Amino acid sequence: MLTVPLAISGAFLSLWLFNQTLNIFSEIGIITLVGLVTKNGILIVEFANQRMEHGIPKYEAAVEAATARLRPILMTSLAVVLGSVPIAFALGAGAKSRVSLGIVIMGGMLFSLILTLYIIPLMYVIFASKTRRDPEIEPEDVEIKAKKTPKLIENI
Predict the structure, then answer these.
(1) Between residues 66 and 148, which one has the greater pLDDT?
(2) What is the reported pLDDT for 128?
(3) CB crowding 131-155: b at 16 or more within 10 Å, else e
(4) Boundaries of domain holding 37
(5) How far apart (Å, rounded) are the C-alpha atoms in residues 133 and 146?
(6) Which residues touch 123 (CB under 8 Å, ≥6 apart)?
(7) How many structural domains is the chain composed of?
(8) What is the end-to-end Cα distance of the chain in Å, rounded?
(9) Quick one: average pLDDT of 58-63?
(10) pLDDT in tens, 5-45
(11) Residues near 36 by Cβ (< 8 Å), separated by ≥ 6?
(12) From CA 128, how far away is CA 56, in angstroms rounded?
């Protein structure tokens, strides 16, 4: 959820830079933006949680998650930004009212993209618990699983 304020601040900043108003179209763009940038944060946090379940320390899991998810986040963000270009630079009848929708999406995605890749791993390191365990394993089963792990590695 930390990506949402970053995206909304980027949206308002882009509206201000391009001298646009906050209207129904820009509000629809903000709602769209919230859904898109939340997905980026979820990608990083979920991957870091998976890495921690495998026993990787919190800091390394956050860095590995940010680097491993960089390309998917870049691809989806740039696809959204480039898909919004025709709306942001539209000409013709009624285009003036829809321009703010494209500007909000483009500005918010670019602003949050840059900050999300740094802020989310940092906040993950600060707020995440030190260890993560598999929810399907009961606490007393951890010792049994730990004893079987070296035998599995030897068999491979």
Answers:
(1) 66
(2) 82
(3) ebeeeeeeeeeeeeeeeeeeeeeee
(4) 3-155
(5) 13
(6) 2
(7) 1
(8) 41
(9) 90
(10) 888 999 999 999 999 989 999 999 999 999 989 988 888 99
(11) 7, 76, 77, 80, 105, 109
(12) 13
Read off the pTM.
0.74
With CA atoms as reference, report the closest residue to 110 among 21, 27, 31, 40: 40
Residue pair 82/10 in contact by the 8 Å Cβ criterion: no
- Give the count of beta carbons closer than 10 Å to the beta carbon of residue 113: 23
For residue 42, the domain's CATH number is 1.20.1640.10
Instruction: Give the pLDDT confidence of 90-116 residue by residue, as tens digits.
Output: 887 778 888 999 999 999 999 988 888
Question: Which residue, 67, 71, 73, is CA-closest to 48?
Answer: 67
**How confident is the model over 110-144, as pLDDT tens digits?**
998 888 888 889 988 898 877 655 556 555 554 55
Nearest 5°: the CA angle 49, 54, 59 is 55
Closest CA to 25 of 104, 80, 92, 120: 104
